[in-house]
Write a structure and sequence with these properties.
Helix content is about 45%, strand content about 15%. It is built from 8 helices and 7 strands; from the N terminus they run E-H-E-H-E-H-E-H-E-H-E-H-H-H-E. The N and C termini lie far apart (about 40 Å). The structure holds NADP nicotinamide-adenine-dinucleotide phosphate. NADP nicotinamide-adenine-dinucleotide phosphate (NAP) binds near residues 8, 63 and 65.
Length: about 250
Amino acid sequence: MSKNAIITGGTRGLGEAMTLKLGDMGYNVAINYTSERSGALADALVQKLKEEKGVDAIAVKADVSDYDACEQLVKTALDHFQGQLDVLINNAGITNNCNFIDLQPKDYMRVINTNLVSMMHMSHLCLPHLVDHDSCIVNTASVGGLVGVVNQADYCAAKTGVIGLTRALALEFAPRKVRVNAIAPGMIMTDMLRGVNQDELRALAATIPLGYIGEPADIAGCMEYILTAPYLTGQTISPNGGFVMP
Ligand code: NAP
């Protein structure tokens, strides 16, 4: 029987690579996005998954920082998948990249709500459908969840929270056959990194032991491993070129 997945922030960067990998693995995919510009990307990915990978797909617009929007997203996906759900990839995330004194409460709350609270919303809504049939949640954390990063206090707080959420849900839902793991990427070339100061980025990249910035495919490969590793739960795997060794 075919398996079904929901991915948040599934049209760009790491999300796009993971969406395509899910298709390669034979999953039908509900691809979430939120911005107007990603609507066309989502539609193109749906076509690609159907035509090139032979799986079913649906694009669903929703701001995952909002519980009601998550509820609508999960309902739309479940209606499409006749109620069966096997995988939730919590990937949506943003960063402010701002010193803490200048950071405004509404801005740090947006980072916390988008990066962490969204994963609580989505897990809360999906877990009733994931229990008791060998299912998985994969959360995108960050090396910022493992170590401190200058100008990323809100982001680091959110991503450390993601790792805590991952461990606690893994423990609580292991008896119900749901594995919960996190990926903590290092520097990976996406729009998120293209948005930061490129001179600073080059200087930072020079300190990566493997000597280069990673590609979204590195993270999609890690997701594939997690989905196919039946003894793995409660773990955070960090593909980061040796940049952080916790
Ligand atoms: P990206 O290219 O900027 O993509 C961010 C994604 O998150 C987009 O798909 C975006 O959707 C989605 N998103 C943002 N706010 C959302 C919301 N309120 N509701 C639904 N979707 C929302 O960045 P990326 O590098 O691929 O980041 C993906 C994840 O990896 C994030 O959690 C990020 O923190 C994490 N990460 C990235 C790196 C890195 O170096 N790139 C390192 C560590 C961790 P739209 O397309 O609709 O805007």
